[in-house]
What we know:
The chain has helices spanning about 15-25, 50-55, 60, 65-70, 115-130, 140-155, 175-185, 280-295, 335-340, 345-355, and strands at about 10-15, 30-40, 40-45, 65, 75, 80-85, 85-90, 95, 100-105, 135-140, 160-165, 190-195, 205-210, 215, 220-225, 265, 315-320, 320-325, 330-335. By secondary structure, the chain is α/β, with parallel strands linked by helices. It has a domain at about 10-40 and about 80-110 and about 225-310: FAD/NAD(P)-binding domain, CATH 3.50.50.60. The relative contact order is 0.15.
Amino acid sequence: xxxxxxxxxxxxxxxxxxxxxxxxxxxxxxxxxxxxxxxxxxxxxxxxxxxxxxxxxxxxxxxxxxxxxxxxxxxxxxxxxxxxxxxxxxxxxxxxxxxxxxxxxxxxxxxxxxxxxxxxxxxxxxxxxxxxxxxxxxxxxxxxxxxxxxxxxxxxxxxxxxxxxxxxxxxxxxxxxxxxxxxxxxxxxxxxxxxxxxxxxxxxxxxxxxxxxxxxxxxxxxxxxxxxxxxxxxxxxxxxxxxxxxxxxxxxxxxxxxxxxxxxxxxxxxxxxxxxxxxxxxxxxxxxxxxxxxxxxxxxxxxxxxxxxxxxxxxxxxxxxxxxxxxxxxxxxxxxxxxxxxxxxxxxxxxxxxxxxx
Length: 358
């Protein structure tokens, strides 16, 4: 009689788009026991959060308590603060042992721990938008452009100004896409100011000053610039030499952290040369899930799945019906790409991936 194989212990740090799908995929695997460590008690469909600002009820589907899709799983709501040889330490003083570790900490984001707090935040932001006649948006990347589009469509009488330090919008994709986004926004009375930044800390009585000395008057503002990479907690660990200057973790083709056979990284925290997007983070999660299953089954390392960086593709929603799509050098804007994303923002699809009703 073959003795029962001891389950391998997997610790996943980060319950965002990558970590959540990885845990769901590993749930109930006969050779793996996992523990999810996350600073908050919920997973959020992050690319839907701007819709939740103009329609708070939308967040009731896009903000999901971890226990809803991981029933019976081991979940620790705390910050991870360190790694020893086979243990992860948490802010609350716990030491969680692992055979395999997966780092999925993405970007430093929300400070709201509970789902209730997060839903209240959207209510507050919605009220701020509704009570303001003029709104300043700082940042012309996908977040700033999508928020401007959401407000312009749902609140067309609001005066929206978008300030971006770059010379064009959506610098992460092609120049034509940035020009189409600019034309779309200006056609809906969004004032776009390029090549300037705003010192939000120096604002006074609703007056904001740009780097060129221009005054902008607005009832409220939203900062839509990039959050820092969530790797600062690793700087004093033995993974510090695997962190690049930009804060991203170096990974190999199997998505293992450089120089470590039992530590993986997925999502935006990795240095994979591709656009940092949610659906790609989900691909990372599925590759690592396969590799963990192979390793737990005693497979040879030569059989591990390799990840191939994705070709450039991006969809930026523009309100509820339209979007901008870029695939390679082809750029489309309007209702057709909007049919792919803008109505539901892939929330139903993401919920189904987690085994929930769409």
